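S.,

Sequence below, as promised.
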Amino acid sequence: MTQQSCGNIAPNVARSRLWEVAVLAAAIGSIIAAFNTAQTELNPSLLLAVIAASMVMGALGLRLPRGDVVRVDALAASAALALLPAQVGMVALFLGLLVGMIFARHMTRSSLWSVIVDANRHVVSLGAAYALQSALSVDSMPLVLSAGLAISVYVAVELGSLVVQAALSADSSLILEGSSMIRSVWQIYLGQACLGVALAVVYPAMGGWAIPVMTVLGAILLNGFAMYLRVKTAYQETIGALAKVSELHMAGRTGHAQEVANMSVAVGRRLGLGARKLEALNYAALLHEIGSLDRDAGASIAHDGVAEWAHKGAEILQAVPFLASAAAIVDCQQLGLDAERGSGSYGHDALLGGAIVRACCLADEARRADSNAGRQLSAVNLMAAIEDEGRWIPQEVIRVTADAFESLDTA
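The prediction came back faster than expected:
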């Protein structure tokens, strides 16, 4: 596995460099093509206002829980689309973003080259939106519709190029990167796009003041969303720390919780679980053995007394409101799918989640045992190991777990 990962480094770098060159070429080509279009009289105050709005949006980058930094500048792009000619609008957006991102480099730790590439990526997206505007008869349709279509194209191209860039840099699947990225930022993109449409609508009445007013609103929206992401990141870091604590009393268990979580999410994604269910499954997998902390360090918690320590873990997690769904999954790791607890019973999602976590826990146990014995675990032996200790686990879950294990083991 290590040799394969090391061998992939050079191709990853080559693909990333090729992508960066393609972005720069596309941005330059978009600006050159725009100079062939009809030009209108330029208002210097509007130009400066768009540059200032772009600077603010570029400086207020969002750091996602997994570490990526995203600049959401749909509002500044809307101002350029509504008020500036194509060639001027793209240059204004580039200059504003570049200055704003350079100003924020001490927080994002981005290299100057990555900042330049990222600014040009936004220019390409804006060029696509301008191309739509020129292709449509904008004057013959309502202002809200034309502004909405243009900014929708910008958001779609910008977000799509962001996903491609992230997938290339991480050597990951476009589908996996896309689902993860869109799940994290679609709300803020939608909010900024709505503000952009509002800017186009109120500009005839407010004039140049529309840009700074909407920029302030956009900055407030970004700051609020950034605070939400920081809280979410703090939750994840806390859960990660608790997962490590649950491994301290067991020899040779380092990294078990994270391995089970990675495999559980991969299995859940293959089984078609939605974003919220995957999030609960991830938390449950990370904390699936937290109820075993009072057990003897020499005991094998993977196979002994599952119902007892799983229920204890669920009681611990139930005290945290946002972990209620994860608590139900943790409680459903016991044999026989006996989910009756107190006044009610768990539903299908908790039962399926419990089966997934249990299957992945047994899979990691089998992998560690074979590794200690100097053997490599095959998919067939993996399925046999899960069936031996978890006969109640559905065959579909066992099969998909084996598939996910092979994919993660060769990544």
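The chain has 17 helices and four strands.

Coffee later?
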